[in-house]
């Protein structure tokens, strides 16, 4: 069923030319499968990197495997504690980022509306339209986030994880729709003014206003950069600030170019800005819809969950199926396992409860569904994905590979 062959079983042969592996540490309760014995020492990695290009690639591979092993074998309680500490530490910075973005967008909207109306530059109009809708989008994000935290669980049993993702998708859709209008207007101006070919009048105050907006967006972008992993709301604001840097910077250049160099640079700049923003938000929306549709997380995160599931109960004999998929921003885990026919209902219930509580402590695991049944002959269910989970041969009997 699952590929339980270790990707590091060939480690000694890979490193044979540079000496034997370091002495294996004793197996402890936090590492019952002895995965840490497969960690390659720093000295061996340094020696590998000195072997040329192939050695550097091999050292990079083992460095990634070391990181993966340490992540997998980290105790659940420690992972839960660290995740809670990160959330507590980022709570105030996240609030500052949200409100600073809202206040800044309101102030910059006035500046950019002035710049667009006074210069009548389509490139600056594109920046102004984006700025106006930034305010509405920020309000939507803030409202959806608060709504997701206080949903009525009777009406919404799944909680607010999906609602927040839906709000982010609506935010991106609005930004794409607005910029589609800008693209259409830019093409219209290109066709309408083709015969005239006149340069626009350079309006210095408008360019100064947009430059001020560009500087403010750069500061917000840098502030949100380290916080984007802490909250999906901040991740969306970070993407918006990143896009605005491109929009304002490029719009500033194309507006000035349309006034001093070639007339069609200004409408062309508006069209390019609109197309660029549409492509960027379309990619973001695609990722959000994948999480709503139940896409699987990365193999490394799935391996961590599988490892803790296989090492947390001695009553479970085999795992018939194992599913991990997105439920909005977080994950849902479904396990179908078997126990000995002699196991009592009370013991099976206690084992399933302990396993569920253990897995729900892992970061981003929202809910766990466990089905236990007697180990009797039945059709095998295949795991939805193959994994390169590091696992010694003495654990293979836990998986129904017949």
TrEMBL record:
Residues 98-281 form the Cation efflux protein transmembrane domain. Keywords: Membrane, Transmembrane, Transmembrane helix, Transport. It comes from the Eukaryota. It is found in: Membrane. Its main location: membrane. It holds the Pfam family Cation_efflux. The chain crosses the membrane at residues 96-116, 122-144, 165-184, 204-225, 245-265, 271-289. It is a multi-pass membrane protein. GO terms for molecular function: monoatomic cation transmembrane transporter activity. InterPro entries: Cation_efflux (IPR002524), Cation_efflux_CTD_sf (IPR036837), Cation_efflux_TM (IPR058533), Cation_efflux_TMD_sf (IPR027469), CDF_Transporter (IPR050291). GO terms for biological process: inorganic ion homeostasis; intracellular monoatomic cation homeostasis. One of its GO terms (cellular component) is membrane. This is CDF-like metal transporter.
């Amino acid at each position: 069923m699952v590929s339980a062959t270790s990707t590091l079983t060939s480690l000694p042969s890979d490193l044979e030319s540079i000496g034997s592996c370091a002495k294996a540490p004793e197996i402890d309760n936090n590492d019952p499968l002895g995965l840490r014995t497969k960690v390659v020492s720093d000295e061996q990695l340094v020696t590998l990197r000195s072997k040329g290009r192939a050695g550097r690639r091999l050292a990079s591979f083992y460095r990634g495997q070391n990181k993966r092993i340490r992540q997998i074998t980290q105790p659940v309680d420690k992972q839960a504690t660290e995740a809670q500490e990160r959330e507590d530490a980022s709570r105030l910075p996240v609030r500052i980022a949200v409100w600073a973005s809202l206040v800044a967008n309101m102030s910059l909207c006035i500046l950019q509306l002035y710049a667009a109306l006074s210069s009548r530059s389509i490139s600056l109009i594109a920046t102004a339209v984006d700025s106006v809708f930034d305010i509405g989008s920020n309000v939507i994000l803030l409202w959806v986030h608060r709504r997701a935290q206080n949903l009525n669980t009777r009406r919404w049993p799944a909680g607010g994880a999906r609602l927040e993702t839906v709000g982010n998708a609506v935010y991106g859709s609005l930004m794409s729709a607005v910029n589609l209008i800008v693209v259409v207007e830019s093409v219209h101006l290109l066709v309408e003014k083709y015969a005239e070919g006149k340069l626009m009048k350079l309006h210095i105050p408008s360019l100064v206003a947009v430059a001020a907006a560009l500087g403010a967006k750069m500061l917000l972008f840098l502030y949100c950069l380290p916080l984007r992993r802490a909250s999906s709301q901040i991740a969306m604001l970070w993407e918006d600030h990143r896009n605005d840097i491109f929009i304002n910077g490029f719009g500033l250049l194309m507006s000035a170019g349309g006034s001093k160099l070639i007339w069609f640079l200004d409408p062309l700049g508006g069209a390019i800005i609109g197309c660029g923003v549409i492509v960027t938000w379309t990619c973001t929306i695609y990722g959000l819809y994948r999480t709503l549709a139940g896409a699987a997380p990365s193999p490394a995160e799935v391996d961590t969950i599988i490892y803790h599931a296989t090492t947390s109960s001695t009553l479970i004999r085999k795992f018939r199926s194992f599913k991990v998929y997105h439920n909005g921003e977080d994950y849902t885990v479904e396990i179908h396992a078997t126990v000995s026919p002699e196991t009592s209902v009370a013991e099976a219930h206690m084992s399933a409860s302990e396993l569920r509580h253990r897995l729900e402590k892992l970061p981003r695991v929202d809910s766990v569904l466990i089905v236990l049944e007697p180990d009797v002959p039945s059709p095998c269910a295949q795991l939805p994905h193959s994994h390169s989970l590091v696992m010694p041969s003495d654990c293979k009997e836990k998986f129904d590979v017949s």
